[in-house]
Write a sequence for this structure.
């Protein structure tokens, strides 16, 4: 069973997105392919369409935006639960994103038969920060996106180490082939700067999105904030290590 995780850039025609493709077999998820720098919808859809019978896609981006201003209700409710843990949501609305790439991507995926929160072929909106908190039983958000270069590297190394521990997860084990472990390598992360460091961050995020896709497919305990009509975010509620 093929699954995908997408870390979608907010301005994806100018900035790169990352996509991870994996195969789910029972309670084992194997990472097969990792593309850390993809530009635009067409390249993403080409990769998705090239996968035979892909079952589901988890995307870190707002897939349904109906509100003209302010935050979506799902963003408000998730922030109420995770704000004290430093994992509040960004704001998305039609004023900020009148023609959102993420919404267009979602529409294209629907035309390919991937429906929101379906039990068969599906797509879901996810948010890595609260998912990471739940999967790794953390007190608050893992900081790996902001701060100094040294802070970002330290955060990425921590996230990479957490991802590595999923290999022995009794909930859903994550198998990463040797040729893709470079993205999780401490020496490699320490060597990165500038765009290369950001690209590795995107790659790690896409792996987390893929893992979230695996958790959705095996139907772990979860919370869905919001609804399909007005926007939603799916968050797993399970400790994986």
């Amino acid at each position: 069973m093929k699954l995908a995780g997408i870390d979608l850039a907010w301005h994806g025609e100018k900035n790169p997105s990352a996509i991870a493709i994996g195969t789910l077999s029972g309670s084992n998820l194997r990472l097969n392919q990792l593309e850390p720098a993809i530009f635009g919808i067409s390249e993403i859809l080409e990769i998705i369409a090239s996968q035979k019978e892909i079952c589901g896609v988890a995307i870190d981006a707002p897939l349904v935006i109906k509100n003209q201003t302010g935050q979506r209700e799902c963003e408000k409710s998730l922030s109420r639960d995770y704000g004290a843990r430093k994992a509040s949501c960004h704001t998305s609305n039609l004023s900020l994103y009148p023609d959102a790439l993420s919404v267009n991507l979602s529409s294209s995926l629907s035309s390919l038969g991937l429906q929101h929160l379906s039990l068969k072929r599906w797509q879901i909106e996810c948010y890595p920060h609260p998912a990471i908190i739940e999967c790794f039983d953390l007190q608050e958000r893992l900081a790996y996106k902001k701060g100094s270069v040294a802070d970002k590297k330290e955060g990425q190394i921590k996230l990479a180490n957490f991802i590595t521990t999923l290999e022995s997860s009794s909930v859903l084990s994550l198998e990463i082939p040797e040729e893709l472990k470079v993205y999780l390598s401490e020496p490699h992360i320490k060597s990165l700067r500038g765009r290369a460091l950001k690209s590795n961050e995107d790659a790690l995020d896409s792996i987390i999105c893929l893992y979230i896709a695996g958790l959705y497919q095996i139907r772990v305990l979860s919370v869905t904030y919001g609804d399909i009509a007005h926007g939603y975010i799916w968050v797993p509620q399970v400790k994986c290590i």
Remarks:
- The chain has a mean pLDDT of 96.
- The longest strand covers residues 28-38.
